Amino acid sequence: MFVFRDSREGDASRTRVDVAFTDASLDLREQRPDAIAQVEAVAGVPFARLVQVHGDDVVLVTAPTGHDDVPTADAAVTTTPGLGLMVRVADCVPVLLADPDRGVLGAVHAGRSGMVLDVATRAVERMRDLGAEHLVGWVGPHVCGACYEVPEGMREEVAALVPEARAQTSWGTPALDVGAGVRAQLERAGVEVVEVGGCTREREDLHSYRRDGHRSGRFAGLVWAS
After folding, report:
1. How far apart are alpha carbons 27 and 125 in whole angstroms?
2. Is there a contact between 48 and 72 (Cβ–Cβ < 8 Å)?
3. What Cα–Cα distance (Å) separates residue 212 from each residue in 9, 107, 202?
4. Is residue 48 a contact partner of residue 42, using CB atoms and an 8 Å limit?
């Protein structure tokens, strides 16, 4: 079920924060509530999800989402004990954020547009408003710069705003490295970054829209406290 799992313990309350990224054995699109139920059973907590639209809105969530009350945003934060956060991806960059000492959690969906809008920094700012101090950010699997081909004009337009994202494919054409751009944004915001790694287009155990088109499922980034 998981391609990666990690945990951190807070110094003060000994709260344990878990993070994980699921694999291609599950398809976590909205129309697959059975897969979401499997994840919740393994994690032991309910999850709040998002309708993701490649923007920079950040929502504070206090309860798990049902089928008809999913907020529209590309990042979520919470201080509610026993509530997990989920973002779903198939090439975009999933970022999981936590301050285990303060019990503040965040989850971010950052595609090309989200990176340009700096949604990751918006989430960090919102978490600090909630009392977070030392933040750790896990950057999950995503399409790499060697595989994400874009028109040259798009590359230059994006690189003018996020220079770290400028890349070239392995076959020598213009590309973007969204993961490198998001990582740089997190570091500038003072976040300790954990690079999970793994290119979705190259790895068969991960969902990839670039590779599989409309047949692609979605895997998830998950963060929860216990």
Report:
1. 31
2. no
3. 38, 25, 11
4. no
CB 96 within 8 A of CB 84: no
Domain 2-143+197-225 - what CATH class? alpha beta
DSSP class per residue in 190-217: TPEEEE---BTTT-TTS--HHHHGGG--
Residue 137 and residue 57: Cα distance in Å, rounded? 18
pLDDT bin (cut points 50, 70, 90) of residue 12 is: low
Domain boundaries, the chain: 2-143+197-225
Distance set, CA 43 to CA 2, 20, 56 (Å) = 11, 9, 27
Sole residue written with tokens 């129309």: 31
What is the Cα–Cα distance from 178 to 170, expressed in whole angstroms? 16
pLDDT tens digits, one per residue of 87-128: 999 999 999 999 999 999 999 999 999 999 999 999 999 999
The distance of Cα 113 from the centroid of its chain, to the nearest Å, equals 14
Query: What span, in angstroms and rounded, lies between the C-alpha atoms of 199 and 142?
Result: 5
**Whole-angstrom Cα distance, residue 61 to residue 40?**
17
Contact indicator for 9, 100 with CB cutoff of 8 Å: yes
Note the pTM of the prediction, 2 decimals.
0.96
Burial of 72 from C-beta contacts in 10 A (0-12 / 13-18 / 19+) = exposed
CA atoms 190, 191, 194, 196: torsion sign: negative
> Which residues are CB-neighbours of 38 under 8 A, at least 6 positions away?
1, 26
Task: Say which amino acid occupies 117.
Answer: L
Place of tokens 């750790």: 136
